[in-house]
Automatic annotation (TrEMBL):
Entry-linked InterPro entries: Redoxin, Thioredoxin-like_sf, Thioredoxin_CS, Thioredoxin_domain, Thioredoxin_ResA/DsbE_sf
Segments of this protein annotated with the region Disordered: 26-72
PROSITE patterns: THIOREDOXIN_1, THIOREDOXIN_2
Domain named Thioredoxin: residues: 57-213
Highest taxon, organism lineage: Bacteria
Record key words, sorted: Cytochrome c-type biogenesis, Disulfide bond, Redox-active center, Signal, Signal-anchor, Transmembrane
Keyword Lyase (UniProt): no
Compartment(s) where it occurs, according to its Swiss-Prot or TrEMBL record: Cell envelope
Annotated protein name in UniProt: TlpA family protein disulfide reductase
Annotated signal sequence range: 1-25
PANTHER family with a match to the protein in the record: THIOL:DISULFIDE INTERCHANGE PROTEIN DSBE
A Pfam family it matches: Redoxin
C-alpha cells in the first residue's frame, strides 16, 4: 500500500467518524426541548416515581384534589399544558383548572429552604380566605416522592401540581427563582408575578389585595 493510499484511507475514516458524531449530537435532545407540542405530555417526575412507589407518600401527605376543570378556557399562556396532580396522579389541564376565581399560584421545590418556610404561610392564608381565592402550589422538581414527604412533614395540605420540567413557570414568564408566586385574576389574566418569599399570611394577603385592586 502506497503512502498516498494510506493517507486517503485515513482521511475517509476521520470523515466517517465526524459524521457519526454529528448524527448522535443532533439526536441527543432531551425530551420536551424539541418544540412545544399542543398538549404537553413530557415526563414531569422521575421514572422511579411509579404509582406504586408514590402510594405511601401520597397517603402520608393526604393532599386535597386539584381544582376541577372549568368551562372557562383559562389563562391563555397556560392553554395546552397538562401536568399531574400530586394528590392522585390524575392529569390536570392547567389553564382550565385555574379558571373562574382568583388564584395564588405558589412555585416551589422540596429542596428549597425558603419554600419550606413559606408553604405553611400559604396554607394559613388559604384557611383565612376560604373559597374567595384558591391557593395552588406547583412543585418544580422531578422528585415527586420528596415533594410529598416534604408537604407531609410541614403539615401543608394544598392542591399541588407536579411540574418537574417547570413548564408552568416558563409559560408565565416567571424568573428562575424559588419560591415565586403568581397571582391570577378570576378571568385568568396575570395580575402580578412575585419572585420573593413570604413569611406570613398577612404578607400574602397584602400582596394579593394590592395585585387585584
Amino acid at each position: 500500500m502506497t503512502t498516498s493510499t494510506r493517507w486517503t484511507l485515513l482521511v475517509l475514516a476521520v470523515m466517517a467518524a465526524l459524521t457519526t458524531a454529528l448524527v448522535f449530537s443532533l439526536d441527543d435532545t432531551p425530551p420536551g426541548t424539541g418544540g412545544a407540542p399542543s398538549t404537553q405530555t413530557a415526563r414531569t417526575h422521575r421514572e422511579a416515581d411509579t404509582p406504586e412507589a408514590l402510594a405511601g407518600p401520597r397517603q402520608r401527605a393526604d393532599l386535597p384534589p386539584c381544582p376541577a376543570a372549568a368551562d372557562n378556557p383559562g389563562p391563555k399562556e397556560l392553554r395546552g399544558i397538562v401536568v399531574e396532580c400530586a394528590a392522585d396522579g390524575a392529569n390536570v389541564d392547567v389553564a382550565r383548572a385555574l379558571a373562574g376565581r382568583p388564584v395564588v399560584l405558589n412555585l416551589w421545590a422540596y429542596w428549597c429552604g425558603p419554600c419550606a418556610e413559606e408553604l405553611p404561610a400559604m396554607a394559613d392564608y388559604q384557611r383565612r380566605v376560604g373559597s374567595d381565592v384558591s391557593v395552588v402550589t406547583v412543585h418544580q422538581d422531578e422528585n415527586e416522592t420528596a415533594a410529598l414527604l416534604r408537604l407531609a412533614e410541614l403539615g401543608v395540605r394544598l392542591p399541588t401540581l407536579q411540574d418537574g420540567q417547570r413548564r408552568i413557570a416558563a409559560a408565565l414568564g416567571v424568573p428562575n427563582v424559588m419560591p415565586a408566586t403568581v397571582i391570577l385574576r378570576a378571568d385568568g389574566s396575570v395580575a402580578r408575578i412575585l419572585p420573593q418569599a413570604f413569611t406570613s399570611a398577612d404578607q400574602i394577603a397584602a400582596a394579593v389585595k394590592n395585585a387585584l385592586q
